[in-house]
Amino acid sequence: MNRLEFLIRRIVASLFVLIGVSIITFMLARVVPSNPAAVYIGPKARPADIERVTKQLGLDQPLPLQYARYMGDLVRGDLGNSISTKRPVLLELQSRLPATLELLFAGMLIAVLFGVPMGVISAQKQGKASDLAIRVVAILGVSIPAFGLGLLLQILFFRWLGLFPLSGRVGKELRFASPIIENTGFLLLDSLITLNFTAFQDALWHIVLPAITLAAYPLGLVARMTRGAMLEVQQQDYIRTARAYGTPERVTVFVYALKNAIGPTLTVIGLTFAFALTGTFFVEIIFNWPGMGLFTVRSLLNLDYPAIMGIALFGAAGYVLINLVVDLVQAWIDPRISLR
C-alpha cells in the first residue's frame, strides 16, 4: 500500500472517530441536569427570558434535530457560541491555543532532549549506579501528579530560592517597560522576531517551571521506553558484528542501535504529546497560564456545552493527527514498516 492510499484510509477512519466523539460528547453534555439558557442570561434570569433564549438556542428541539443542526454548523466551521462568554467557541480556542501550544512544545522539547539520552545512558550502564539513578528519576516522573510537582517547584524555586516567577506568561511590569508585539501568539517567537530580548528573557523565565512540570511524565515514559528498546536492540547480531569490526562505540550506539530502537520511542512520544495536549490544563491552572485550561475549567463549571464539545473535538482531532504523523515518521525512518 502506498503512502497516498494509506493517508486517505486514515483520514476516512479519522472522520468516523471524530463523528463518534461528537455523538458521545453531545449526548453527555445534554443529559447533565442543567439549564444552559439560564446560564446564558445570568443569575437574574426571568422565566420569560429563559423560554425565549431556550428557543433561540434550539434547546426546545429533539436531540437528533439538535445534533443534526450542530453538525451542519460544524461542517461550515462554526462551533457555536460559548454560553459563558457569548463569543464564538472557535475564536475562544484560537485566542488561547498559542499559549497552550507554546507550553506544550517547551515541555515536550525538554522530555525528548533529556529522555532519549537518559534512556540510552541507562541501557549502556545497565546495573550500575547511573542506571539506577535514571530509573528512579523516570519512575518519579510518571508517578508524581502534575499538580503536586507544580506546587513543589513553586515552593522550592519561587518561595525558597527566588529563582523563577510564580505564575503567568510574562511579568506585569513588562507591558510598560518592554511590551511584546504579538504576531503569532507565541511570546517567545514574537519577542525574537521583534528583537525584544528583554521580553524574550522574561517569557523564557516564566515558562521554565510549567514546562518542567509538564515534561516530567513524558520524560519518564520516553526514558524507560528508550532504555527497553536499546537493551533489546543491543542483543542483535549486527550490533555485535559492528563492535567486532572495531566500529567506534559512539557510532554503534547512536547510529546503528538508536536508529533501530527509536520506533517504539516515537510511538510513546506521539501518544504523550497528544495526552499532554489536554494534560496541560492542570499545569495551566497551577501556574495561572492563560491557555485553554482555564477556559476548559470555566466551561465545565458553567456547563457550557458548546465550549465543552469544541474542546473535546479539538482534543480528539489532535490525537488522530498526531497518531497519523507518528505512523508516517516511523515508516520513513524504518523501511521495514509497511503502511497498512
Key structural traits:
mainly alpha; 340 residues; 76% helix; single chain
Structure overview:
This protein is an all-alpha fold and 340 residues long. It has helices at residues 3-31, 36-41, 47-56, 63-75, 89-124, 129-143, 146-160, 174-177, 187-193, 197-233, 237-244, 249-286, 292-301, 305-333. Helix 5 (89-124) packs antiparallel against helix 12 and helix 10 packs across helix 12. It is globular and about 85 Å long. The protein starts with a helix and ends in a 7-residue tail after the last helix. The mean pLDDT is 85.
The shape, in one word, is: globular
Strand fraction band?
A: under 5%
- Mean pLDDT across the residues is 85
Low-confidence stretches: none
Order of helices and strands: HHHHHHHHHHHHHH
Secondary structure tally, helices: 14
Major beta sheet, specifics? none
Classify the helix fraction into a percent range.
Answer: over 70%
Task: State the total count of DSSP E strands.
Answer: 0
Question: Over the alpha carbons, how many angstroms does the gyration radius reach?
Answer: 24 Å
Whole-Å distance between the termini?
A: 6 Å
- Class by SSE composition: mainly alpha
